Amino acid sequence: MVEADRVVSYDDMLKVINHPQKVIIDVRNPDEVKSTGKIPSSINIPLSTVDNVLQSMSEVEFQNKYSRTKPRADDELIFYCQSGRRSSEALDKALKLGYRKSKTYLGSWNEWSSKNK
Fold this sequence. Notes:
Layout: E1 7-8, H1 10-16, E2 23-26, H2 30-36, E3 43-44, H3 50-56, H4 59-66, E4 77-80, H5 85-96, E5 103-105, H6 108-115
Parallel strand pairs: 1-5, 2-3, 2-4, 4-5
């Protein structure tokens, strides 16, 4: 179960997609993203690579791959997936790595896509 203060709502997401200091991370596999689309301004870091990317990828590599600055431990990360399960796993991983302001969008792609048709 995810703590309530770690969960963002659809309305919260509408506000953060235009704030580049917030890092929205889609943890689905690239083929899922390709077939469905993604939330505006999000970057795709599959769940299986979240640990490695956040912990080991250099700032230069991150910038080259995702066209944005690598997040710092005090940046707000918001994870989403298809239905909320993988984003909750990613949240746990990020918190263990010291990203204290990390959150999850539990509605994830299912909710986002149903409200943005």
